[in-house]
Design brief:
Strand 2, helix 3 and strand 3 form a beta-alpha-beta unit. Strands 9, 10, 11, 12, 13, 14, 15 and 16 form an eight-stranded mixed β-sheet that branches. Strands 3-2-6-7-1-8 form a six-stranded parallel β-sheet, with helices on both faces. It starts with 6 loop residues before the first helix and ends in a 10-residue tail after the last strand. The protein is globular, with a radius of gyration of 29 Å. It is α/β, with parallel strands linked by helices and 756 residues long. Helix 1 (7-14) packs across helix 2, helix 9 crosses helix 10 (219-228) and helix 16 crosses helix 17. It has five domains: 5-114 and 205-293, Rossmann fold; 125-198, Arc Repressor Mutant, subunit A; 327-392 and 568-672, Rossmann fold (3-Layer(aba) Sandwich); 394-562, PCRA, domain 4 (Orthogonal Bundle); 698-743. It binds adenosine-5'-triphosphate. Adenosine-5'-triphosphate is lined by residues 4-6, 9, 24, 26-32, 263, 266, 298-299, 587, 589, 626. The chain binds a DNA duplex (15 and 10 nucleotides) through helix 4, helix 9, helix 18 and helix 20.
Length: 756
DNA sequence: ATGACCCGCTTTTTT
DNA sequence: AGCGGGTCAT
C-alpha cells in the first residue's frame, strides 16, 4: 500500500530524530504524516515498541494503528497485532507493538502498574467519571454545610478541574484565592482531593497529574520509560494541557525525539485547560526543533475553503490554505421556520443525496449542543433514515448500568465509597436517609471507609432494626461478589445482577421501561464477555513473554468503560448518517456535512467560557466547516423549542460575516411573503459607504413578521449586518440582525393606545 | 423512619 | 426529560 506525500510531508515523515513541529491547517495531511512516519520508522528498523504515539481520541488511535499496519503491508503489519485499547497490559514490555493511545488511556495503564508507589494509592485505584465526581462534591457540600445553589456541583467541578489542569494544588488554590467564594471553592477542592485519595480514586485530571508526579518522584520509572519510548509523537497538539505537555517533555527531553502536530486555529478545548501555547513552550524547551508547515488542503472544494477562510478572517488563519481540488457545489445557508422544519429539510437533503448515490456514512450532521440531536432522531426514525448518534447519553451512563457497575466496584475495593453510596439502598432495603447519615458519621468517626465499616457491621450498633438488617443483607451481597472475583468477567457481572436482586427491583420501580433496561443489562453482560475474549487472546499471545504481567481483567473492563466512550466502541456500521457535536467531529471528514442550528447564542454559544470567548466559538465553527469534502450546508431556525418554551432565534453573527462569499442564502418560503425591506438586495448592501436611511434608528417603531410590534432601543453597524435591539410589545427585548430579520419600519402606534 | 410522589431547576463543549 | 429536595402516607 502506498499513498502520495508532498515534499513537506515527506520531510516530516523521513526526519526521524530531533524535535519537530508540524503546524498545518485543516485537511493538509497531518494525520497522514503521523501514520506514514510511524511506518517509516519501523521500515528503517526502529523497534515498533519504542514508538509512543498520542492521539486525541481512542478511535483515532485505532484508526491510526490500522492505517499503519496497512502501510507496512501484510508481512510487516502482522508484527504487531491490532489489540486496541485492551492491548498488551504492561507497557514496559511487548517491544513488538507501538503504543498508540490517548493521554488518558496511556496514563491509566501506566498507573495500574506504578501507582502503588504514590501514597496512599494502590494499583487497583478506581477511575471516577463525571457522575462520580458530582456525587463526591455533593457529599462534600453536605459535610461543609454549603448549599448546592451557591455551589452547583457542575460549576464547582469545572473550577476544580481548572485548578488541576494548571497544576495548582489545593493549598496554592487557597493562597491565591481572594474572594470569599473562591476561598470556599478552594476548601471544597482541598476536601475533594483528600477524599479521592482516601477512596483510592483518580478523576480524569488526576490520571495526567499523577503520572507527572510519578515521573518526577520516581526517577527509575522515568528512566525505564525514556529507554522504552525513544520516539514520541503527539497529534492535535493544540489541544493539550499543562500536565500533558509536562509529561511529553519529561519523556523526550533526553533523547529529544519529540514530534508534535497540530493547528492552533483548531484549538477548541481551552475550557479543559488546553492551550496552543504549548507550541510556544515546545519552542522554548526544544529550541533546535524544526518546523514544517503544510499549506495544501487535500480535503475540500475551493467553495468550502472560501467560507473557512472568511470565517478565519484576520483573527487567525494566517496559514493560508490553497487547494488544487476542482470546483464543487456552492455552500448553502438555509433558514427554516423552526427546529422541526429544519429536521424535515435535512432529512429531505439526505434522501436526495442518497438517491444521487452518496453513502449515508459519508454524511454528517453537526451541532453545537447534544440536545439538538433529539429532533433529528425523531424525524429520521419516522423517515426510516439510518443514523448513529456519536456521544450524548451513552450506554454506560444509563442508570441501571451504572448501578451494576457500582456493585462490581464495591466488590473490588472497600475504599470506593462513591460506588457504595450509589447502591447502598438500591434496590431498596429499608435503609433510609437518616440511617445512611448515621452510618456515614459512624464510619467517619471510626476513621474507616464506608466499605470497611460495612464489613465489621456486627461490631457496632449505631443502627438497628430494619436498616441494620438491610445493611447486613448488602454486606452479604458484596461478600458473594468478592468471592467471585476470580471468575470470568461476564459471570461476575451476571452474579452482580443476580445477587443484588436488581431485575425484580427494575420490574417494580420502572413499570414503563423495565424491559429496555433489562436488555441494557444483558448488553452489559455481553460487553463483559467480549472484553474477556480479547483479554484471553492478548494473554495467549504474550505467553512466551516471561515478563508478561497480567492486570486484573475487571480493572481493565472498568477502565475501558470509563475512558472509551461508547461512541468509539460502537462498531461503525455502513449506511448510517452520523450525528455529533462540532467538538466530536474534530479530525474527521465527510463528503457532505450539514451544520445545524447556526444561530446566535448557539454558535457562538451564550455561555462560552470567558477565557477563550467567542473566538473559540469561531474556531469551532471553522472546524465544522472544514470537515466537508464536497458539500456543506448550514441551517438555522427562526424558532426553537427549549424546555417548554418556543424561543425566537436570530441567525449566528458568524453567518453575517460570510456575506459576499459565494454562499447561497435561502430563506424559508413561508417566511418570504412580501416584506419590502427583506429581500435579496439586503444581502449585498453591506457597504458602509452607501448607507441610506433605512428608518431603523433608536426610538423608531418596527414590525417583525413573527415577533410583532416593537421599538428600537439600540442600533449598531450598517447595512445588512446592522444589529438592532428591539423592545417588543409581546416578548420583551431581542437582538436582531437587519439583514436577516423580517422587519419593516412602521409609524409609532397612536397615542391613544398608550397607557396614560 | 421509610419510601412514594410531586415540584422546580436544569442543558455547552468531553477525556 | 431527570435529579435533588420537599411533602405526606404508611
Ligand atoms: N499528499 C497527499 N495527496 C493526496 N491526498 C492527501 C495527501 N495528504 C493527505 N491527503 C488526504 O487529505 C485528507 C486530509 O488529510 P488528514 O486527515 O491527514 O489531514 P489533517 O491535517 O489531519 O486534517 P485536520 O487537521 O482537519 O484533521 C485525507 O483524506 C487524506 O487522505
Amino acid at each position: 500500500m502506498t499513498e502520495a506525500l508532498n515534499p513537506g510531508q515527506k520531510k516530516a515523515v523521513t526526519s526521524h530524530r530531533g524535535p519537530m513541529a508540524v503546524i498545518a491547517g485543516p485537511g493538509s495531511g497531518k494525520t497522514r504524516v503521523m501514520t506514514h512516519r510511524i511506518a517509516d520508522l519501523v521500515s528503517a528498523g526502529v523497534s515498533p515498541g519504542s514508538i509512543l504515539a498520542i492521539t486525541f481520541t481512542n478511535k483515532a488511535a485505532d484508526e491510526m494503528l490500522r492505517r499503519t499496519i496497512a502501510l507496512l503491508g501484510p508481512g510487516r503489519g502482522a508484527l504487531f497485532p491490532t489489540s486496541g485499547f485492551l492491548g498488551p497490559s504492561s507497557l514496559d514490555l511487548d517491544e513488538g507493538t507501538p503504543v498508540l493511545r490517548t493521554f488518558h488511556s496511556f496514563c491509566a495503564r501506566l498507573l495500574r502498574r506504578h501507582l502503588h508507589r504514590i501514597e496512599p494509592y494502590s494499583g487497583r485505584f478506581s477511575i471516577y467519571d463525571t457522575a462520580d465526581q458530582q456525587q463526591l462534591i455533593g457529599t462534600i457540600l453536605k459535610e461543609l454545610k454549603l448549599d448546592r445553589t451557591s455551589f452547583p456541583p457542575r460549576a464547582t467541578l469545572s473550577r476544580i478541574s481548572h485548578w488541576k489542569n494548571h497544576m495548582t494544588s489545593p493549598e496554592q488554590a487557597s493562597e491565591e484565592s481572594t474572594t470569599f467564594r473562591e476561598k470556599e471553592l478552594a476548601r471544597i477542592f482541598f476536601r475533594y482531593q483528600e477524599l479521592l485519595e482516601e477512596r483510592d480514586a483518580a478523576d480524569f485530571d488526576d490520571l495526567l497529574i499523577l503520572v507527572v508526579r510519578l515521573l518526577r518522584e520516581h526517577p527509575d520509572v522515568l528512566e525505564r520509560l525514556r529507554a522504552r519510548f525513544e520516539y514520541v509523537m503527539i497529534d492535535e497538539f493544540q489541544d493539550t494541557n499543562r500536565p500533558q505537555y509536562l509529561m511529553a517533555k519529561l519523556l523526550a527531553e533526553e533523547h529529544r525525539n519529540l514530534c508534535v502536530t497540530g493547528d492552533p486555529d483548531q484549538s477548541i478545548y481551552s475550557w479543559r485547560g488546553a492551550s496552543p501555547d504549548n507550541f510556544l513552550r515546545f519552542r522554548e524547551d526544544f529550541p533546535e526543533h524544526i518546523v514544517i508547515t503544510l499549506d495544501q488542503n487535500y480535503r475540500s472544494t475551493p467553495q468550502i475553503l472560501e467560507v473557512a477562510g472568511r470565517l478565519a478572517g484576520s483573527e487567525f488563519g494566517e496559514r493560508k490554505l490553497f487547494t488544487d481540488n476542482p470546483d464543487g457545489a456552492e455552500v448553502r445557508v438555509q433558514q427554516l421556520r423552526d427546529e422541526r422544519a429544519e429536521a424535515a429539510q435535512i432529512a429531505d437533503h439526505i434522501e436526495s443525496w442518497q438517491e444521487e448515490g452518496c453513502a449515508a456514512s459519508e454524511i454528517a450532521i453537526l451541532y453545537r449542543v447534544n440536545s439538538l440531536s433529539r429532533v433529528f432522531e425523531e424525524e429520521f426514525v419516522r423517515r426510516r433514515i439510518l443514523y448513529s448518534v456519536v456521544g450524548g447519553m451513552s450506554f454506560y451512563e444509563r442508570k441501571e448500568v451504572k448501578d451494576i457497575l457500582a456493585y462490581l466496584r464495591v466488590a473490588r475495593s472497600t475504599r470506593d465509597d462513591v460506588a457504595l453510596q450509589r447502591i447502598i439502598n438500591v434496590p431498596a432495603r429499608g435503609i433510609g436517609k437518616v440511617s445512611i447519615e448515621r452510618f456515614e458519621d459512624a464510619a467517619r468517626d471510626a476513621g474507616r471507609s464506608l466499605g470497611e465499616h460495612l464489613r465489621c457491621l456486627d461490631g457496632h450498633d449505631e443502627i438497628r432494626g430494619k436498616a441494620k438488617k438491610g445493611l447486613a443483607q448488602l454486606r452479604d451481597v458484596i461478600e458473594t461478589l468478592s468471592e467471585n472475583v476470580g471468575a470470568p468477567l461476564s459471570a461476575q457481572v451476571a452474579v452482580a445482577i443476580e445477587a443484588s436482586g436488581y431485575l425484580s427491583h427494575l420490574e417494580r420501580s420502572e413499570p414503563e421501561s423495565w424491559q429496555e433496561r433489562e436488555r441494557n443489562l444483558e448488553e452489559l453482560v455481553a460487553a463483559a464477555t467480549e472484553t474477556q475474549e480479547i483479554l484471553s487472546s492478548v494473554a495467549a499471545r504474550a505467553q512466551n513473554d516471561p515478563e508478561y504481567e497480567e492486570i486484573d481483567p475487571m480493572s481493565l473492563f472498568l477502565e475501558r468503560i470509563a475512558l472509551v466512550t461508547d461512541a468509539e466502541m460502537r462498531t461503525e456500521e455502513k449506511g448510517q448518517v452520523s450525528l455529533m457535536t462540532l467538538h466530536a467531529a474534530k479530525g474527521l471528514e465527510f463528503d457532505r456535512v450539514i451544520i445545524a442550528g447556526v444561530e446566535e447564542s448557539l454558535i457562538p454559544h451564550s455561555r462560552h467560557g470567558e477565557a477563550a470567548g467567542v473566538e473559540e466559538e469561531r474556531r469551532l465553527l471553522y472546524v465544522g466547516v472544514t470537515r466537508a469534502r464536497e458539500q456543506l450546508l448550514m441551517t438555522h431556525a427562526s424558532w426553537r423549542r427549549r424546555f417548554q418554551e418556543r424561543e425566537p432565534r436570530i441567525p449566528s453573527s458568524f453567518l453575517v460575516e460570510l456575506e459576499g462569499t459565494s454562499i447561497v442564502f435561502e430563506r424559508d418560503q413561508a417566511l418570504v411573503k412580501s416584506s419590502s425591506t427583506w429581500g435579496q438586495t439586503n444581502w449585498h448592501r453591506s457597504d458602509p459607504g452607501d448607507d441610506e436611511d433605512d428608518g431603523l434608528h433608536p426610538g423608531c417603531w418596527i414590525r417583525h413578521e413573527i415577533l410583532g410590534r416593537g421599538v428600537i432601543v439600540r442600533a449598531q453597524g450598517h447595512g445588512a449586518s446592522k444589529r438592532i435591539s428591539v423592545r417588543f410589545e409581546e416578548c420583551g427585548e431581542k437582538q436582531l440582525v437587519v439583514g436577516y430579520a423580517p422587519v419593516t419600519p412602521i409609524s409609532p402606534p397612536d397615542e391613544e393606545w398608550e397607557p396614560c
